């Protein structure tokens, strides 16, 4: 059974939004997060495009967001997070979580700022409850 997080409001239609998200650790054991604003931190990754597999999406998202290649490990968790967008709309984010190793840097700029944080700091910074849950599962595997 895939766990669900967030409040699913009655009478609201949620748009399915499958996505792939990365847990990346550096040599010091720090966790990669991306900062969109001072208050909004997420795991690297994002929504899958039509026809993409979760792994293909993960490779594309790492290239876009971090300007790096990616070596995608096994899928280790899945969760659904119900969210309301600040721009309107409600989404069921169907997250696929992977352990990822960064590959070579790519030409061009990264879309987002990469931060390396200790696990407790990363957990406190992540916006989505499902991502914090998945971080606990990721750390338990180590």
Short note summarizing the structure:
With 142 residues, the chain is α/β, with parallel strands linked by helices. Helices cover 23% and strands 44% of the residues.
Give the helices and strands, then pairings.
Blueprint: E1 4-5, E2 15-23, E3 31-37, E4 40-42, E5 45-47, H1 54-66, E6 68-84, E7 90-105, E8 113-117, H2 119-125, H3 129-141
Parallel strand pairs: 1-6, 2-7
Antiparallel strand pairs: 2-5, 3-4, 3-8, 6-7
Helix pairs in contact: 2-3
Question: What can you see in these coordinates?
Answer:
The chain is α/β, with parallel strands linked by helices. The model has no long low-confidence stretch (mean pLDDT 96). Helix content is 23%, strand content 44%. It has one domain (13-141): Nucleoside Triphosphate Pyrophosphohydrolase (Alpha-Beta Complex), CATH 3.90.79.
